[in-house]
Amino acid sequence: MLKKFGLIGMIACSIFAFSFPGQSEAHANTHTVQKGESFYKIATKYGVSSKQLQEMNDKETSVIQPGEQLKLPVVPDDYERDLLSRLVEAEAKGESYAGKVAVATVVLNRVESDLFPDSIHGVIHDGIQFSPVLNGTIKQPASAESKRAVKEALAYQGYDNESLFFYNPDKAQSDYLSEKEVTTVIGDHVFLK
């Protein structure tokens, strides 16, 4: 009997110890500067460029102080990179390459925003935000162009106009979005913040 409870306990612990793909954080949103660190050392640690890290934190110089909190770019795992590529494919199929990059950038901006979940998976599966999640088209594979657009959007973090929303006004109307500031229009999509 004791063995049976032990086995059940081990199974229960295993279920809680292993998370589903994309459910865990693929990145940390901030880094606390330690004595002796530089933008270069921190960027190398996280696999991003020091210029991108500096730009994301609105730093005109490379001076940082111990204890300072730095925002970090989103660094997704393979699952989240594929998920984002499939979303871009489904949402921006037929749009220009720039439109695909912009759609991926909206998702990454949402990860960084306090208004949305802190992971790509969380943002994409947040309620009824994206129609491809609802209609199942997100399950279709991404094209090489959509994958390349995601790669560019990841490298572009910190240099964009902070768009958090997009929609096609020919297909959808929204009083909520009509109150937002338009950041750019690319193809059939209007991007807003």
TrEMBL record:
Gene3D superfamilies the UniProt entry points to: 6.20.240.60, Cell wall hydrolase SleB, domain 1, LysM domain
Protein's name in the database: Cell wall hydrolase
Keywords, comma-separated and alphabetical: Hydrolase, Signal
Domain LysM stretches: 29-72
Annotated GO MF terms: hydrolase activity
Stored Pfam families: Hydrolase_2, LysM
InterPro entries: Cell_wall_hydrolase_SleB (IPR011105), LysM (IPR018392), LysM_dom_sf (IPR036779), SleB_dom1 (IPR042047)
Transmembrane stretches, start-end: none
SMART domains given in the database record: LysM
Organism of derivation: Pontibacillus chungwhensis
Signal peptide interval: 1-19
